[in-house]
Amino acid sequence: MKPQMLIKGVEWEGQIKDILIEGQYIKQIADSISVTAGIEIDGQGKALIPGLINAHTHAAMTLFRGIGDDMLLMPWLKEKIWPNEALLTHEDVYWGAKLACLEMIKSGTTAFLDMYYKLPATAEAVQEMGIRGVLSCACFDHFNPEQAGKSKQEIQSLFAGSDAYGPRIKFALGPHAIYTVSGALLQWIDTFSEEHNLLIQMHVAETEEEVSHSVKQFAYTPVRYLNKLGVLSPRLSIAHGLYVDEEEIRILADKGVKVVHNPASNMKLASGTTFKFTEMRKAGITVGIGTDGCSSSNNLDMTEAMKLASLLGKAWRKNPEALTADEMLYAATGQGADILELKTGRIAEGYLADLCLIDLNLPAFTPNHHFTSNLVYAANGSCIDTVICDGKLLMQNKKVPGEEEILKRVTELAKKFR
Questions:
Q1: Nearest 5°: CA angle at 139, between 65 and 84?
Q2: Does 204 share its domain with 262?
Q3: 71 within domain boundaries
Q4: ∠ CA 390-125-354 to the nearest 5 degrees?
Q5: What is the value of pTM for the model shown?
Q6: pLDDT tens readout for residues 359-400
Q7: How far apart are the C-alpha atoms of 282 and 280, rounded to whole Å?
Q8: 38 backbone φψ class: left, alpha, beta (φ>0; ψ -120 to 50)
Q9: Domain identity same for 22 and 66
Q10: Are residues 135 and 27 in the same domain?
Q11: Are residues 122 and 217 in the same domain?
């Protein structure tokens, strides 16, 4: 018999329910469930939400939190990030990713879409920490055919060994951007992804400089350039997508491309503010939310990301009715699950048991006139009390086993980056 977990008397959608988990999945939701489960959780004073999904980040960049703050994007990359990344070892990435997983668990994230180097190190950390990761190997060729060949070899090698990562980890492809990856390599990656049914994520239309450079170098804006290359597909998720016009939104919708909004890094790097969330959703585009990496957003708190996305969208539109709390929670759960192609992000029988219990005995939820509004506008990730992923208990009473060692090891390892 599969192991069972029972959550008793938890608030869900304004009602008090019992939730029975059997193995990896939600087995039953009812007013009262009488079974003897291996683990029973008292849900009194708590609310249930799906595990949050961080649809774009660079996990091991927790190592660079606070390095190169208050800089423009390209100088930040060239002077601070890329030189430090050249120093990274497998051990660095492993512990940096463990810290990222710890931070995500403690703030309610149960799945994330990553792009970074030394993918096996991140996979090892994710497997040990118990959450889900769709891990894409960061790819650059800088328009150098020799480097493109090396990138292809690395992708093929990593993919060949990806079955060893375990069922909670999916292999994906991560061409960095159109200004660091040649069109020929992008086309090869698209073909490889189609052959093996792999997701792709890349940074697209993040800054005005990127758009002007694209027009100058390729004679097209970024989305039109990718469309000309023939690499837009439902397998592609683009991060940022700030600078897209009405026609480009239609192109993305027609091709089934997903888009991830990263409000914290967009504001911190002053990349832009006018993310067209409403227009994209009306066009039928799946839109998720991401934190980006800790070196450009400084934390991995998806509750904070939801709030920033909503307030930013209201502010530039001068419309308080735009980007509601309910829309933000759906973007950070159901839409994120659709981007990662996971049967999670929703609380329903038959769905994966990736769940969070919110502590309602906090000022942010007092009074609790509207739970989702309080979650998005008043709370932050510290409201998460319990995290379950794949039917397993990862955090209870805000405590993750082994967190002290992770903090200690990362503190020691990160000294060389100062």
A1: 30
A2: yes
A3: yes
A4: 20
A5: 0.97
A6: 999 999 999 999 999 999 999 999 999 999 999 999 999 999
A7: 5
A8: alpha
A9: no
A10: no
A11: yes
Report d(CA 107, CA 99) in Å as an integer: 12
Q: Which regions of the chain are under pLDDT 50? A: none
Kindly state whether residue 57 falls inside one of the protein's structural domains: yes
Claim to verify: residue 303 and residue 328 sit in the same structural domain:
yes
Which pLDDT score, from 0 to 100, does residue 356 have? Answer: 98
Strand ranges (E), 338-413: 355-359, 384-389, 392-395
Instruction: Kindly state the tokens that stand for 51.
Output: 């595990």
Q: Please give the structure tokens belonging to residue 21.
A: 């988990």
Q: Kindly report whether the peptide bond that precedes residue 320 is cis, defined as omega within 30 degrees of 0.
A: no
Residues 260 and 269: their CA atoms lie apart, in Å, by 17
Verify that 142 and 195 share a domain, yes or no. yes
Q: How many structural domains are present in the chain?
A: 2
pLDDT given at position 74:
85
* Tokens describing residue 99: 């810290």
Structure confidence at residue 98 (pLDDT) = 98
The rounded distance, in Å, linking the Cα atoms of 289 and 299 is 14
Q: What are phi and psi of 279, to 5 degrees?
A: -65, -40
Range of the domain at 386: 4-50+352-403
CATH number at residue 378: 2.30.40.10
* Helical segments of 178-276, H only: 183-196, 208-218, 222-229, 246-255, 263-268
Tell me which residue of 266, 362, 368 sits closest to 308, measured CA to CA.
266
Which are the contacts of 405, defined by CB distance < 8 A and separation ≥ 6?
none
pLDDT in tens, 128-137: 999 999 999 9
- Contact call for residues 238 and 205 (beta carbons, < 8 A): yes
Q: Please indicate, yes or no, whether residues 129 and 35 belong to a single structural domain of this protein.
A: no
